[in-house]
Amino acid sequence: MQLRYALVLAGAAIFSACAGSPKPTNELVQAQSALRAAREVGAAEVPEAQLHVQLADEQLRRADKLMNDGDNAEAQRVLERAKADAELAVALAREADAQKSLEQSRSNAPEHGSQSLSMTASQ
What's the CA angle centered on 96, arms 94 and 100, to 5 degrees? Predict the structure, then answer.
């Protein structure tokens, strides 16, 4: 009787190990959303962010293949990296946009300053 019980427990342990991790659907959705956000802010056109958009895209494809192969644990890790790369691309694109706006403001500042001086002098 104890042998039968031990065999049943061993079989259950083997079955649960073979079942593996559940599909990381939440991580998949988060990574896809982050990549979509990166594309929407124009990260693919920002030199500093382009590589991260490309990496996130490749990692999403790799994670899809891993899930199809049943390696959900590795797919989850890859999806987490994909999300991180996409979020970094968003941040880099926003930084580049802010830098561009700052440079435009600085280049326009002397013009406005000299105009206000000339207007004050003529009054």
Answer: 115
Task: Supply the pTM of this predicted model.
Answer: 0.71
In a domain, 94, yes or no: yes
Structure tokens at 109: 């500042």
Tens digits of per-residue pLDDT, 62-99?
A: 999 999 999 999 999 999 999 999 999 999 999 999 99
Find tokens 């065999």 and name the residue: 7
Q: Which residue in 78, 84, 50 sits closest to 64, CA to CA? A: 78
Lookup: tokens for 104:
């435009």
Asked if residue 82 belongs to a domain, the reply is yes
Domain containing 61 equals 53-106
Cα atoms found within 13 Å of the Cα of residue 11, Cβ hemisphere only: 6
Question: CA–CA separation, 86 vs 72, rounded Å?
Answer: 20
Inter-residue contact 78 to 61 (CB < 8 Å)? no
DSSP 8-state assignment for residue 46: S
